[in-house]
Specification:
Elements lengths: L18 H9 L4 E8 L5 E4 L4 E4 L16 H4 L5 E12 L2 E7 H15 L5 E10 L2 E7 L2 E6 L20 E10 L4 E5 L7 H5 L7 E10 L2 E7 L2 E6 L14 E11 L4 E12 L19 E3 L10 E3 L1
Parallel strand pairs: 3-5, 8-10, 13-15
Antiparallel strand pairs: 1-2, 1-4, 2-3, 4-5, 6-7, 6-9, 7-8, 9-10, 11-12, 11-14, 12-13, 14-15, 16-17
């Protein structure tokens, strides 16, 4: 895509510019990036450009600041992070030369491009910016964000989006919906993690594997083998202690049977341990060749139950 998330795909040394670099970007009207080192008392962003400091005036630091539709926390939270911007000129402050930068212009241009050119079903690059109980927000281009609701993080159910994502994580996402009147993007992630058959192909009956406990029911324990695949484990108290595992803990399970027509995996619980350590998560993606989904069919053809996402 033409406009990438801020800091996406760049190394730190690419954020050091010479005066000639800055002038070239200004003359060519080109978006560049660097790290904001601080937000001053007037809520202007101060940016380290290498050859000099840059300043992003508060009203040009984020879309929505000018009209008051966005609070200043959107500017304050950029301190210490990579920001994109246009170079508009230079000025002196207390005898020091600053490059005058405009992030709002870059954001607005990217937003216009995305609302005009992207469609539901398109697969895009994204970067997780912050996580709430109900979902994860992701930068989808020049600081503009979309929301991945918790139910769209994966097929396997989770209690909090932090079980799938961490801030700063680079991911793929698929556009679920675009509200063009409000310029709002709703995203999904689960369709990129593969169908039931894609995921179950990595397992076979008779294997003993590890997974993550997602829920504990009266009739058994649901264990996640992959983010888009869970099975139901029977508990044999003769083999393990009589206490039950807790959601989020690790589990060792024996694959008893795989039943495509019922979209089920039956497991035997062998052992369970402590909560899964918080590690940086990465994913295996199953991407459409065209970069676009018209629909996504999770369920096997032989299954009576159909799970389909139409875009």
């Amino acid at each position: 895509m033409k406009y990438l998330p801020e800091g996406f795909g760049f190394s730190e040394n690419q954020y050091t510019y010479t005066l000639a670099n800055l002038e070239q970007a200004r003359v060519q009207n080109k978006i560049i990036e660097a790290r904001a080192t601080m937000c001053d008392s007037s809520h202007n962003l101060i940016v380290d450009l290498g050859c000099m400091k840059g300043i992003v005036p508060r009203i040009n630091a984020c879309v929505g600041i000018k009209d008051g539709s966005v609070r200043d926390i959107a500017v304050l939270s950029r301190a210490g992070k990579i920001c994109c911007f246009y170079v508009e000129g230079y000025e002196y402050r207390n005898g020091e030369r600053f490059a005058v930068l405009n992030r709002e212009k870059a954001m607005r241009e990217a937003l216009f491009y995305m609302t005009e050119n992207l469609h539901p079903g398109d697969v895009i690059d994204a970067k997780i910016t912050h996580i709430e109980r109900f979902g994860a927000f992701a930068d989808i281009g020049c600081g503009n964000v979309g929301l991945i609701n918790i139910e769209n993080c994966s097929v396997s159910r989770i209690t909090h989006p932090s079980e799938r994502f961490y801030c700063g994580q680079r991911i793929k996402a698929v556009i679920k919906d675009i509200d063009r009147s409000l310029c709002r993007f709703t995203l999904s992630h689960k369709e990129l993690l593969g169908t039931w058959e894609d995921n179950v192909s990595g397992f076979s009956v008779g294997q003993t594997v590890s997974g993550v406990v997602r829920s504990v029911m009266d009739y058994g324990v649901f264990v996640e083998l992959t983010p888009n695949l869970s099975g139901l484990a029977e508990i044999h108290t003769d083999d393990i202690v009589s206490s039950l595992p807790v959601p989020g803990s690790t589990a060792t399970v024996y694959i008893k049977s795989i039943i495509p027509e019922k979209m089920k995996i039956k497991l035997n619980m062998i052992d369970f341990g402590e909560s899964q350590p918080k590690e940086k998560i990465s994913y295996r993606y199953f991407l459409p060749v065209s970069g676009h989904f018209d629909s996504f069919v999770y369920s096997p053809q032989s299954s009576d139950k159909k799970i389909i996402t139409n875009f």
